[in-house]
Amino acid sequence: QVQLVESGGGLVQAGDSLRLSCAASGRTFSSYVMGWFRQAPGKEREFVARISWSGGSTYYADSVKGRFTISRDNAKNQVYLQMNSLKPEDTAVYYCAAGSITTTQAETYRYWGQGTQVTVSS
What we know:
The strands form two sheets. Strands 2, 4, 5, 6, 9, 10 and 11 form a seven-stranded mixed beta sheet that branches. A four-stranded antiparallel beta sheet has the order 1-3-8-7, with no helix packed on it. The chain is built from no helices and eleven strands. By secondary structure, the chain is mostly beta strands. It is globular, with a radius of gyration of 13 Å.
């Protein structure tokens, strides 16, 4: 069992930045591919970013590429999502997820956090 807890969400204005954190339980954190997903009101959950076990490989959705950066600190069992130049369209509940393969599909991730709300006003 792996437990994930997101933090760092909040209400910001367009153009601002936020850094989301995800704290993971367990000493095997480094064995998991970590991903960030988001779900906006009235929409399906969508892929945002993922990072490999070592942190050497990352992948982003086109909508956030160049603005968001995913990173991880295996020694601290933490994964981060640095979000810059935020837009109102980024408003969503953001979820941290852990899995065993590097995909963009939510159904392939085994463990999920409870989500943290990010609201971007104009």
